[in-house]
Amino acid sequence: MRKPYEAMVAAALEEDIAFEDITTNATVDSDARCMVRLIAKQDGVLSGIKPFHAAFAQMDAEIEDWSAVADGTRFRKGDVLVSFKGNTRAVLTAERTAINFIQHLSGVATLTAAYVAEVAGLDCRICDTRKTMPLLRQMQKSAVVHGGGANHRHTLMDAILIKDNHIEAAGGIASAVRKARRNAHHLLRIEVEVTNLEQFEEAIAAGADVIMLDNMDPDTMREAVRRRGDRPVILEASGNARLESLRGMAETGVDFISVGALTHSAPSIDLSLLIEALEDHA
Questions:
Q1: CA distances from 29 to 87, 130, 257, 270 (A)
Q2: CB of 37 within 8 A of CB of 273?
Q3: What's the chain's average pLDDT?
Q4: Structural domains in the chain plus CATH codes
């Protein structure tokens, strides 16, 4: 059965190629083969090897001597990340699609690693959100893990997260949690988003398993941690989680900091695909 990323790669190739790569087909012999190397042009953390490989495989590149560093590997400018031999036409036609995936996903992993480094030594984890590119969520969330981060829920089925609009629609925090508890199975956690200490107390009293401290300043977060005491409630900070403010947020004692920027604002990593023609392609 085709994996989800394989379907995404197939759709991306169709988008890019349309009916034919007329440049490659007009200038390259059909049986030509080449040596391919993917070179890092800056430091980073790798993610996206599977869709990168799939782009060439789906173009029937007749891949030989494949060698690649593993996802999650830190690399330096100038490193060779992937090398293989393949059909030149297929390689050139799939090149842009393959690079688009691996550059973006490596960007997510690299940005995540920078955020994780900011909280080193503290008992706090960096996690992603559902602010992902449509249809790329699973790959982006894998990239977050490759960068050392953690995943929040993948889909709306994974957990109950009661946010401000749910609270309004349900008639308050207590009512929302009560209804959620009545309709959820016993293994499902319930998280409540709060914006102030009054709501925090309501969520604690209602029996929330996880409380999201949304856009709170560090002093307020620190007070929420104090009020939690020894209750088995997970505290997640969210909102305005920038690199320069991250450690201060983590030092308040929260368990997680969720960062939408990991997936919606990560800059792509600069990678270059170089080919060398192989003489013997008979």
A1: 10, 45, 53, 29
A2: yes
A3: 96
A4: 4-115+267-278 (3.90.1170.20), 121-264 (3.20.20.70)
| CA separation for the pair 102, 49 (Å, rounded) | 7
Strands (E), 97-171: 125-127, 160-162
201-222 pLDDT, tens digit per residue, is 999 999 999 999 999 999 999 9
Calpha distance 203→35 (Å, rounded): 60
Q: Which residues are catalytic?
A: 96, 131, 163, 193, 214
Place of tokens 């790959």: 139
DSSP E strands in 30-115: the ranges are 33-40, 44-45, 64-68, 74-75, 80-87
- Provide the residue count of the chain: 282
- 269 pLDDT band (50/70/90 cuts)? very high
C-alpha distance from residue 152 to each of 72, 159, 161, 259, 276 (Å): 19, 9, 11, 10, 43
pTM of the model: 0.95
